[in-house]
C-alpha cells in the first residue's frame, strides 16, 4: 500500500467534495492552508505557489544551489506545492530537478512549466526535454509560454492530455500583453489553466479575463504578484494600514498576496524570491483569513492614496 502523502490527501478530498481547506494534519505554517479547487477536476491547490524566473537560474554554483535548496525546503515545509518554470528561464528547470531530487520532495510537487519554441511541430520534443530536466515522468501542468505558436502547440497538448502525458494544459501571458487574443482563446478552447499578470496595481484582468475564467471554469495563476518586486520599492517604506490584521496581513508581502488570491477567480499566485526570509513571508499568505470584496476595495484605495 502506498503511503498517504499530502498531495494524494488533497486530491482525495477534492474527489469527495471537501476540498476548500485541509485539516491541521498537514498545516505546517499555523492553522490550515488556504486552497482552491482546479475547476476542471476539483483537485485542490494551495493558493500560494512559487515562480522561478531569474531566481532559480543559478547554474551549478554550489553556494547558490544550497541557498535555493533552503528556499525550496521552506516552501514545501510551509505547505507549498505549485512550482512554475519555463525553458526560457535559463537553468531554472534543471535546478528544480536537481533540488527536488536532493530534498526528496517529488511527492509534494505540483510541477508546472511551459512550451517555449516557435516551432509548432516540436511540442512533444520540448515537453520531453523539460521532463528530463525536472526528473518527472509527466508534468502536472504544461502551458504555452506567452502564446508562442499557440495554435500548433495547443493541438499537440490536447492530444497529450488525452493520452495522459500531461494532467492539465494552459496558456500564459505576462505584463498585461495580448489580453484580447487570450480572451478569444479562453472563449473557444478547452483550457484547464491560464496564467496572467495580476496584482494590486495591475488589475486590467478584472475587466474581462477573470470573469471569463469563472464563467468557463478555467483555473488562474497570477504571475508578477509583486510587479517584479516594484511594489516593495514603492510601498515598503510606508506603514501598513492599522486595519491590516482585519484582512489577515502582518506585512506587505501578505497584504499584496492576499489581495491577489482573494479574487474569486484566482487559483494560485506564484511569487519568486532568492531569500529564505522572504519565502517565509510569502507562505504566511497561505494561512489565516482572506479579505472580502469590500475589504479588497479598501486595500486598493489605501495603496492608491499613498
UniProtKB/TrEMBL annotation:
Pfam families: Aldo_ket_red (PF00248). PANTHER family: D-THREO-ALDOSE 1-DEHYDROGENASE (PTHR43312), NADP-DEPENDENT OXIDOREDUCTASE DOMAIN-CONTAINING PROTEIN (PTHR43312:SF1). Gene3D superfamilies: NADP-dependent oxidoreductase domain. Signal peptide: none annotated. SUPFAM superfamilies: NAD(P)-linked oxidoreductase. This is Aldo/keto reductase. InterPro entries: AKR2_Oxidoreductase (IPR053135), NAD(P)_OxRdtase_dom_sf (IPR036812), NADP_OxRdtase_dom (IPR023210), TAT_signal (IPR006311). Residues 48-294 form the NADP-dependent oxidoreductase domain.
